[in-house]
Every structure is written in structure tokens, then in C-alpha cells.
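hiii so my PI (J.) wants the whole complex modelled not just the main chain, which honestly fair. so below is everything: three entries, each one labled with what it is. i double checked the lines twice but i was tired so who knows lol
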Amino acid sequence: MSSQALSQNNERFEVNLGPQHPATHGVLRVKLLMDGEYIVDAEPVLGYIHRMHELMGENRTWAQFLPNMGRLDYLSALSYNLGYVELVEKMAGIEVPERAEYIRVITTEMNRISSHLLWFGAFVLDLGGFTPLLYAFTDREEILDLLESVTGARLTYCYYRFGGCYNDVEDEFLSGCLAFIKRLRARMPMYHNLVTKNVILRQRLERVGPVSAEMCRKYGATGPVLRGSGVNYDVRKNEPYSIYPELDFDVPVYHEGDSMARYMVRMDEIEQCMRIIEQAIAKIPSGPVMAEKVPKMIKPEPGDYYHAVEAARGTFSIRAVSDGKNQAYRMKLRSPTFSNLSLFQEASKGMLLADALALMGSLDLVIPEIDR
Amino acid sequence: MDLGINVIEMLLYLVAIIGFAAINAAYLVWVERKGAGHIQRRTGPKEVGPYGLLQPLADGAKLMSKQLIIPAGVDKPLFMVAPLLAMVPAVMIFVTIPFSENLVARDINIGLLVIFAFASVNVLSLLMGGWASRNKYAVISAARAVSQNVAYEIPLLVMTITIVLVSGSLNLREIVFSQAGAFWHWNWLPTNGNFLGPITFIMFFICYLAETNRAPFDLGEAESELIAGFHTEYGSMGFGLFFMGEYANIVIGSALIVILFLGGWYSPFPEVVPFLGSAGVWWFLLKMYLLIWLVVLIRWTFPRVTLWSLLNLSWKILIPFSLFNLLASAGLVKFLG
Amino acid sequence: MNKANVIQELKALASEGMPEEPEVAAVAEEAAPEAEEGGKAKKAAPPEPRKNGLLEVDYARRGVHVDVQVAADQVVRAAEIVDAAGMTLEAVTGVDWINDKELEVVYDYAYTGGECFRVVVRARIPRDEANIPTITEVFAGANWHERETFDFFGINFEGHPQLEYLLLPEDCDFHPLLKDFKGC
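here's the output for the full assembly
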């Protein structure tokens, strides 16, 4: 049907989807060439919220650049914080106390759950279901309250420091996390009953927007998009960092490659995050949360340094080039959704508008992170 | 003399009907928002008046006091007429609806026909509004609305014919009279030789959701795809009329279902039950508002379907089934009824 | 995927560019620790720009396994080698070595099919004649990464299907990550 529709050349028209459009969740613009309801070509136009973070990285000291990490992906900012501090620790050879590692993992995974919950709500909103958004926000609110009690921020966290964390967590926070997990565990079946098992939702997601593993590889897509296409790749497993090797968790992988697979990957990841947090809280040792000898002025040896972490949306990696000064010579931030979105143009060819928006929602876009 | 009384009577009816339609439309918005708030664990409107009850008035005053912006390049006459066309036929339809045995403005023999004739004007207003707006989203939305309405008008009419066969009349009062008695006498259950009643009822309800452009079939104004669909370019009372027309249509659809399937003003209890057993307008309104509440519940629970699955549902399932249903019902009425 | 094969092929490719030095790789490896020691020796005499060749670097320290520098016209073949090995493109970026009057284009590749393996391919081009062939034919995802690099460094990717500003406004006339960029 689609190829037939595409072959007719007569009644095509261009539609600007965005930069202000309810489905793009921010300031993304997609130039659509449409044939009736079919998409002939969809070209994303970026840069509406570009802030040149990479240049800021070159004219600030290593420590001064830390707060910028909360401004890339404002929904899972702690993963980005973690990636950056681990890179600098790798460069400067700073050892991190074990308790700090555990706190980092607990807070990062909490942040990942909150990010997935928000995506869940916004994604179903894209599909026309309004209510799950509010339900997800109720749970997310609890996470934000918990993280606020530790980090002092609700969204743009800047909690980790080179060599540890800014402050220690109290037992109330840990027990609050456990209470939250208990609550979310009880509510996950509700989400599945309300949304996952809904026949309309399944009809809209299953076999819609297939992305093959090969396409993911050619475009460098990572994270849930890649795992929804049947590739078992998670930086936490394949290139372990922090204390992830000591924790027992699974990487959800679905082989269908459709929007439903990406949906299921994220929903299962919420469960795995809860497992990780529980184990980490059970194992957390006492001790300092800050390394003793952290140089005030960090001057790494010249050369290239690369570090990758698994953010909520995929592989976030930083390539830092040092010339021995207290500022980076070059700071390249590789954001996952930049690559994930780049496959949209190819994947959406010949799709219906409504299906393409479902595909776009399943890529889980955060525009400030794409534009940097 | 006679003429004078007639004119006064008609004016009274007119005022009452317009008032009923307007108040219903306005307060359904309140019900919808309050209901959505309840479903989503928030409070909904609460600031204006007790329980936010004056919110619709405030909204109305706001909409009326806003400037009516007419974008450059629109087809002005069509652009202005479209919202009127959304509201006026809806008010007209109320004329024929019997709220109780005697509470009907005009008891017309072909009442059902009048309702469908006026109801089909609604799609014209969406098409005109979408087309005249000179907005691509509005045009896509108008195209969707037309294909959706064409697809669902057919099974809706075919199923209405089934009911007409069973009741033997096009007069709405007669149709209700044929269901006299407690709830097992009504058309939604296999009664009066109408053994396919439940199927007809469910299919009719689905078609009615689609006809009124309500979720999960609200493709015309799918906000995540088409922003606001055909009324993207409308503001002020232009938008207000579209909005009221939509809610008036919901009221009409629910009233129609109550008349065709749910025994109109008859009580669900047998007549021997004191108080509850007596028929009256309150039963009609109760049933109607329960149906409307069901529609609100559905809207805030389900995601939206896609256009193709919507059309497939109509052309591939509802239309063949409704035709089969018509034939089978006709046969059953003929031989068993 | 066979790591050793990839390393071997990349090594062969990198040494192709300089037939007069048969042991380029060895030279580069020697040069590397020197560069990594950094610090004092460096201040006295700035080191020569790195020569083409392949290094197997300390992963725990640097975050990559293999670091190979090739000539500008070899980046497509390098991409083909890692593509054949089933690796994916993580990023393309640039570095402005203004003191050497050179721009460096850096390609980060990673293996997502199993055990972690990261390869970085780099090529140096003169600053005043910043042309390098595109690898979009090999990795479609390079399209946006190369456009971004064009935004920031003004590097001309020859044969790129749509070399326009991606993140910067379409009418801007500067490249902010060049070291001589003084604001606009």
C-alpha cells in the first residue's frame, strides 16, 4: 500500500512539524514531505536549542564544566554527571571510595527510573492517552523528592564530585528508596493493565516503525532503541564501570525491532533498575564519600581520554583532549539521541503520520541533549 | 389568536431548547474536566465558584470577549459560517427529541430521519472549517473527519433501520412506546423478537463514538499529530461554537441511544415498584448522563486509534456485520416477532 | 568479530601511506609513551605532530583499545574495515591543532555485538585546506556527525550529500570550535 502511495507524485505537500508542536516535546522541527497521510520524506531540523556546550568545555576548568552536565539531558542528568566525573577521575587517577560508588549507582538508577517514567507518560500522550502521564508523574514526583533531599536539585543535578559525592546520604534516603521501590512494584501491574495490555495501544505499536539491528549499527543507535532491535548491548554490562560488575541485573532485549519492543525494553528496564537499587542498598558499605586527596587544580596529562556510560537513552560518551592545562583542549560530548534520531529520516519513509509520531515517541527524544 | 399562541409557544420552545443545549454543552465541559481530574488524581477546576461550578461561565465570558482573529488568506465566508454550522443543526435536533411522553417540542412522524439529516450537516462544518482555515493540519484533519463520518454513517443508519424494523415506526415517541416496561423490555436486550439487540447496541455505541469524533476515535483533532485539527486557526467564539457543537452532539447521541435502546423515559424497574417504578423525564436524563459519563471515562482511558484501523473497523467489520444484523433481525422479526 | 584481524588491517592501512618508513607502527608506538609522559619534557620542546600509524593504547587509562592515524584519503577505507568487522560509528568530531596548523578529524568506533572494543581513527588535514572524504557511504549515521563537524570546524567533507549547517543557524559564517574563533 505504501509503495503504491509513494509512486504517485501529484499531490505532495510539505508540512512543518514543529519547532512548536505537541508531539516533538520541545523545539525539534521535522520537515515533512507528505503524500496524503503518508510520509515521503521526513527531515529533522536541529539546532533550535543549541548552546555550544563543547565550547564551554574548552574555556572552563574541569570542575567548572561539571554543572553543564545537568543541562544536556535534563531527564537523566545524573548519568551524564557520572560519565563526566568518571572521565576526569580516569584522567587524574583519582580513586573513589566505595560508599560513594554505591551512592552514585543508587541515585543514577533512581534517575533512570524517573526518566523512563516520564517517557512512558509522554509516549502514551503521543498516542492520545492522557491519563497515564499523570499517573507516571505521581511516581516520578516521589523520585524527585527523594533525589532533592540528597542533591538539593530536582532536575539539573550537580551532585557528584571528582573523587566522590558532594555529601553523604542518610538512612532515611535509603529507606525512602526502598519504600518507593515497593510502591512502584505494586503499581507496575497497574501500568501494564492500563497501558501495555490495551488492545488499541498494541495495535498502534506492534509491527509499527521497525528498526533493524543493521540500521541501528549504521546509524550508531544505542540504548533501548538498539536493545529493542535484538542487540544485547548495555555499557553497564559490556564495558563495566563503577560497581555495576558487582550487581546482578539483566539487560532486557527484544527482537521485534518495532515500537512495542522499544516500549517493552524501557518498561523492563524500570524493573531492572529497581533490582539494582535494592542490591546496592543491601550492600552499601559505610565510610567516607569523598576521596582524601583530590587535587584542587586538575591538570591531566596530555592526550586523549574517552569514557562511555549508559544513560537512560543510550551510550553517552565524552572524548576529552587534554593539553596538560586545567582546561580541556577539546571536549566532545557524544549524546545518544543525536544518533538515535538520525535514523528517523530513513525509518519513517512511507509511514503514516500517526505511526511516524509513534516511532518518534519510541525513540525517546530529549531535544536539549540532541542540540547540546 | 391561535396563531399568536402558536408563535409564543414556539418561541418558548426555542428559548428552552437553546438554553438546554447551551447549558448542557457548557456544563459537560465542566463534567469532563472534573471527571478527567478525578480519573487523573487531581482536582480539576475548583477556583471559580463552589467546586468550580462557575468555571463554564467564566470560560464563556472569556471566549466571548476575545477578539475573533481571521488569519490572512482564509476563505472568509466559509471560515465564518463553519462554526455556526457546527452548532445550529445540533440545536435543531433537540426539537425532535422526546424527553418524556409529553415533553417534546415537535412530535414529528419522521423524527429519526430529521435527526440524521441534521446530524450529517456536522461533518460539513468540519470540512468547511478545515478547508477554509488554509492550514495544512486543518486540511488533513478535515479529510480525516470526512472519511471517518462517511464510514460510520453507513453502519449507524443500517443499525437504526434494524431498530425501526423492530419498533415499526420512525417516530421517536412510538419507538419508546414500543419498549414500554422495565429494562428487559428495552431494545438493548433480546426482546420483542429482536434477538440481536445487544450486538446492535454495542455496534451502535461504537459508531456513535466515532460519529461524534470522541476519543478513541478523535482523529480529527488528534492533538499530538494535528495540533487541534480543523479548529487550529479558530479562536474566540469560533472555537467556542465548535466546542459547544461537539458537546451538544454528545448529548444528542446519548439521547438517541436512550430512545432507541434504553427505553426512553421508562423506569428500569417494573411498574409495581413504588416511586422508582414510575416513568418520567428524570429516568431519561439519568440514563443520558450515565452514557455521557461513560463516554468521558472512555476518553480518559484509551489511547487513540489510527485512521486506517478506524476505517478498517468500519468498512471491514461494522458495515458487513450491520448488514447481516439487519437481514437477520428482519428475518427474526418476520418469523418470530 | 576478530579483533586481531581488525588491528592487522588497520595497521596495514596506516602504514600504506608512508612506504618510505617500513616500521611506521613501531615508530608510532615508541612515540606514544613519550607523548603520554607529557609534563616536563614537553614544555622544553613541543613534540612533533603525531605521525600516521597504529597504537594499541592502554584501555584502562584512555578508554579506547586501538588508536590509529591514517592519511586523509584513507578514512573511507578505514571505515570499511571496521564496518566489515560489524562495528558501529559512535561519533565523528574534530580537533583544532592550531600550533601545527592542522585540523584533526576523529572517528570513534565501537563494537556493540559483544565484548567491548573501541577503535579511534584519526586523520590530519591542513587547516587552510580542510578537505576530507565523507564516510556517509559506509556509515549512514555519519551524515549528521559530519555536518556537526562542519558546523564547528568548517571541515569540508567531500561528497557529503547535504553539507549544511545542522546545529548552527543556516546563515552563520563562523566555526566556533576553531581556536582562533573570537566570538561573534
